[in-house]
Amino acid sequence: MKEKLYAIPVNDAFNTPCECPVCAMYDKLETDAVDFTMDSSYMVDDVRMETDEKGFCSRHLKMVYEKENRLGMALVVNTHMNKINDEIKKMINKASAPQKSSLFSKNKGSDNEIVTYIEALQRKCFVCDRINNFFDRYIATIFYLYNTDPSFVEKYNTCRGFCIGHYKELIKRAPSVLRGDKLSAFIEATNRLYIENMERVNDDVSWFIAKFDYRNENEPWKNAKDSLPRALIKLNR
């Protein structure tokens, strides 16, 4: 049932012409996660506890801010900062408390504990975690559909390829979920889609460059006008 449920967003992504349907799935999850953060959910205790604990990476902090829910953002930031400050003050106070000396004990100091805490905090993000909870299931659904649904195989085999990061992810995961002829067909199709479509976009970029030569001034743009944004999608992950 879970695979069938996640087949809807996966099929939607492969039905939409784009330079990487996996990016399209990720971007939709990201938008939904940011929207979720700044709708009324920030008033829910469980969500607030999680945002207090994890905070946001720099990318998602900026995206949450751009939702322009200033009160909601202020409430989330305020309690998150309180959480951080309380934890660090505890570590400082613990380190400054008198220590019983012993031949076998060492005072590690507050700096090591604080550094470890901050480094762990920098690896956390409420939005990233929310995305990843679903994204792994979406990737699993791609393989499920490729293995069970001939109509999806046709859509997969005729898509516009993938960005370099998601191309890597697909060929990396395939051997653990596909077998025999299915695996061979998947790898062959994925390699073909990647190379053909990277070359297609790069050819468009080459023509974009050539159009700046005065000798090509009156030549048609063909598909080159939006080639740079499409090339960035191919290279971005």
Describe, in short, the structure shown.
This protein has 237 residues and is mostly helical. 74% of the residues lie in helices and 0% in strands.
Secondary-structure map:
Blueprint: H1 2-15, H2 21-38, H3 45-54, H4 58-65, H5 70-96, H6 109-122, H7 126-148, H8 150-157, H9 164-177, H10 180-210, H11 227-235
Structure notes:
The protein is mainly α and 237 residues long. It has a domain at 21-133. It has 11 helices and no strands. The longest helix has 31 residues, at 180-210. It starts with a helix and ends with a helix. The mean pLDDT is 90.
- Give the N-terminus to C-terminus distance in angstroms: 30 Å
Main sheet record:
none
Assign an overall shape.
globular
Question: Based on helices, strands and strand pairing, what is the structural class?
Answer: mainly alpha
Mean pLDDT metric: 90
Tally of contiguous helical segments: 11
What is the H/E string?
HHHHHHHHHHH
Helix content: over 70%
Can you tag this structure with a few keywords?
mainly alpha, 74% helix
